[in-house]
Design a protein that fits this description.
420 residues, 55% helix, alpha/beta, elongated, four-stranded mixed beta sheet, 19 helices
């Protein structure tokens, strides 16, 4: 199949020419939907009861589930080397530091070799997954929010870097594609392109220990390199020619659930229930801080508003009392001034029209009967005249004045005083 020059060359490496030939070969070998296989890998084939329950969700939908341990995974990678005559991938596989990284390489290799569905052991399927797999050729599940699909790429990259700096996310790409769940036919070019990038990254790494985990794994073999491979292919060819179907993070909730359990990420507590990821814990603390700050500001503003209303009510009450007292004082002063004005004498009707103003006779002073005690009233302070302090209200003061002058109505008292 391959030119002799490639086999004779000891420094042979996988070339774009060979990739093109294999893609053309795999185009006619699409995924047979009648016997779709779900590939999974674990350290030990002795599964826990919870892991068996997760696997049963795939079996109940009619999928064949195969589980590979570390030994079987290396056999599959060796089979890939024999098909491609590409020994470099096996050297890279053996040089990887963790079993998680080797598991990433195996999942791309097994999908390129056999096709089907790869799912992490902690991914369980919902019933709609069956119709999705059987109606699509290759499915890409997004891990980031759909908004990053719409934003410009440079802006999404900047937001991702800022969020990682603050510890708000563990995504290494925005947008980012999942490699915990993938669907592809045999010989799909995306899987082969991902393996090529992994080999290139391994050769270009200088100080791998400077990159902390899990970032290094996510970048080297995980969703980071998988997303980069997809972006490269989409720049060369359109999604329709690659047979790709994209499922957003929101839509993916209808098809599967990823518990996110892993030996390299401690996301579960001792009760084996879903727990928060580190960046999710940071986000929750940020949300709690924002809520606490908002409530504190709301309570402070409410308290200050209540105090303002209370002082305003007290001010209005005191102002009302003072206003009534001022009106009473003005009324008493006016009554006293009116009582000392020169007035006509009480005579017969014949005397009407003959005023005393301008006459030589000294005018007589008439004091209305209702103000027989006015000297006593006006010569005393208000609190002494009413018998109560001013802040107890002027209504009582007016009533006291009316009682002192032996009248039932203050209005009648004012009428008798002012109008005689």
């Amino acid at each position: 199949m391959w030119p002799d020059s490639f086999k004779a060359d000891s420094n042979w490496s996988f070339t774009d020419w060979q990739a093109t030939q294999l893609e053309q070969l795999g185009a006619a070998n699409s995924l047979q939907r009648r016997d779709v296989v779900v590939h999974q890998t674990v350290r030990s084939l002795d599964l826990s009861p919870q892991q068996q329950k997760w696997q049963d969700t795939w079996r109940r939908l009619g999928f064949n589930v195969t589980t590979a341990d570390d030994l079987q995974a290396r056999r599959d990678v060796l089979r890939l080397v024999q098909v491609l005559e590409w020994p470099e991938i096996l050297r890279v596989y053996d040089a990887l530091e963790t079993s998680v990284q080797r598991s990433d390489v195996w999942r791309y290799a097994i999908l390129w070799l056999d096709g089907g569905v790869y799912a992490d052991i902690d991914v369980y399927a919902y019933p709609p997954m069956k119709s999705l797999v059987y109606s699509s050729e290759a499915i890409i599940f997004s891990e980031s929010l759909p908004v990053f699909e719409w934003l410009p790429h440079a802006l999404s990259v900047g937001i991702g870097q800022f969020a990682r700096l603050l510890g708000l996310t563990d995504l290494v790409r925005l947008p980012q594609r999942r490699n915990c769940l993938m669907v592809a036919p045999p010989r799909h070019p995306l899987m082969l392109r991902t393996l090529k990038l992994i080999v290139a990254k391994m050769h270009s790494e200088r100080n791998p220990k400077q990159i902390p985990e899990p970032t290094r794994t996510l970048e080297l073999t995980g969703p980071g390199v998988f997303t980069d491979a997809l972006d490269e292919l989409l720049r060369e060819r359109d999604a329709a020619s690659l047979g790709l179907t994209f499922v957003s993070r929101i839509d993916g909730l209808h098809y599967f659930c990823h518990v996110a359990q892993g030996s390299w990420k401690k996301y579960l507590d001792a009760t084996d229930q879903p727990a928060l990821k580190p960046h999710e814990q940071t986000l929750r603390w940020c949300v709690v801080l924002l809520q606490t700050t908002g409530l504190a500001v709301y309570w402070l503003r409410s308290w200050r508003s209540a105090r303002k209303r209370l002082w305003r009510q007290r001010l209005v009450q005191h102002f009302s009392d003072a206003q009534q007292q001022v009106i009473l004082c003005v009324w008493v002063w006016a009554a006293r001034s009116f009582a000392w004005m020169p007035v006509k004498s009480r005579g017969s009707d014949a005397d009407e029209g003959e005023g005393t103003f301008g006459s030589d006779e000294k005018p007589r002073r008439f004091l209305p009967c209702s103000f027989s005690h006015q000297h006593k009233l006006c010569s005393l302070p208000l609190q002494n005249a009413t018998g109560r302090p001013p802040n107890e209200g002027s209504a009582g003061a007016v009533a006291q004045v009316a009682k002192m002058h032996q009248v039932d109505d203050c209005t009648a008292l004012m009428r008798d005083t002012w109008f005689g």
